[in-house]
TrEMBL record:
Gene coding for it: nqrA
Signal peptide range in chain numbering: none
Name listed for the protein in its UniProt record: Na(+)-translocating NADH-quinone reductase subunit A
Superkingdom of the source species: Bacteria
GO molecular function, one term: oxidoreductase activity, acting on NAD(P)H, quinone or similar compound as acceptor
Enzyme Commission number(s) of this protein: 7.2.1.1
Keywords, ordered alphabetically: Ion transport, NAD, Sodium, Sodium transport, Translocase, Transport, Ubiquinone
Domain annotation NqrA second alpha/beta: ranges: 115-259
Organism of provenance: Candidatus Cryptobacteroides excrementavium
Amino acid sequence: MSNNIDLKKGLNIPISGVAAQKTRKVIVPDVVAVKPTDFRSLKPRLLVREGDKVLAGSPVLADKETPDILFTSPVSGTVTEIVRGEKRKLLEVRIKADSEQEYLEFNVGKVNSLDGNQIKSLLMQSGLWPALIQRPYGIIANPAVKPKAIFVSAFSTAPLAPDPEYVLRDEFQNIQTGVNVLSRLTDGGVHISLNAANASGTPFHKIENAVFHTFSGKHPAGNVGVQIHHISPIMKGDTVWTVSPLMLAAIGKLFNTGRYDMSRIIAVTGPEAKEPAYVKGICGISMKDIADFCAGPAEETRFISGDVLTGTNAGQDGFLGFFDNQITLVKEGRTHELFGWAKPFRSKQFSMSHTYFSWLTPKKTYDMDTNLHGGPRAFVMSDVYSKVLPMDLYPVYLIKACLAGDIDKMEQFGIYEVLEEDLALCEYVCPSKIEIQSILSDGIALMMKEMA
């Protein structure tokens, strides 16, 4: 195992509502949704109509750019609704689940005898190819390109992140199969990053056919993009793939059972979660299925698919994302505090600086809400971003280059190495209330358009 990489910069957000390590319920979904919006730059082609019957693993969508890449149903049932937005943009395909699930069986054969092209074909037919994310830009991996390596982060430092050893406790045989399969798609190997705090105790360290790295530090030490930056930085012209342990397990299940099985253990977390814990479900479940976890009125609660920094505001009628196994419930911050900024004693507020006295109680957690405590203001030069970003980048200059649409400057300041999640903490600590992730997303979209 390589030497530990100790990251000195970062910030752990002390939000309350961590999930207790127990599974409170098994969710039998009534309706699930397949959402093209979970995938960056996807141009979906609809393959079903309302009223069509589907099996778990039946194709629902295809990628117009690469028609062999399919998006399949996580359940068997009936297509009940095609949801579209502005300009008829396809938002969701809703499927009413059968009481008894039926699976489309894929002919896998002997895993050890499959070559790279056969593996790619199975992943694309089954709907699991979109689990592979390509960097730069965070898009669905291009099957025509061989990546220099594949990277997996075996731990997460995001706020209230699910415990990977708990949610994947029965999946390590499938994870091993997933690693064996993906290692045939690259010459650079599968790189797995472990948390240095328990690297020798986690079952991940027993995975074979992988290259290991250990990291220590505060969030975002668990971000795969930060890890890649310190292991093998992405230069212009480089291509790497990433995959989460959750998706690695799903890939392994496909090759072990011949089924598209998207079942997962999901953490229900956050200050507004009543008895935060885990549930067993699948991707695409409705937020209504966890409504009994909500401590307050649903209309006053934000239902986030993912964590509070990078998750999607799904709404009380929304659905869990393809990549997510966490739901965070936080109160909508609609109140205003008169002269709040001038009060010296604010025991219920957290600050990364010594502005308040939260630094005297480092183990305390806070019932945070969505209140911004102020509005957008002038984008001032500050070193606050660099204190939470453990990467050799200049985030202020990168964001300003994105605002200006300056391709050369974006390349110079590291657009190839980052996604929104890597700069999420910069947005959280920003004194100007700048929507950094949105600006970076627009910059990435411009790069993809101009560099195509």
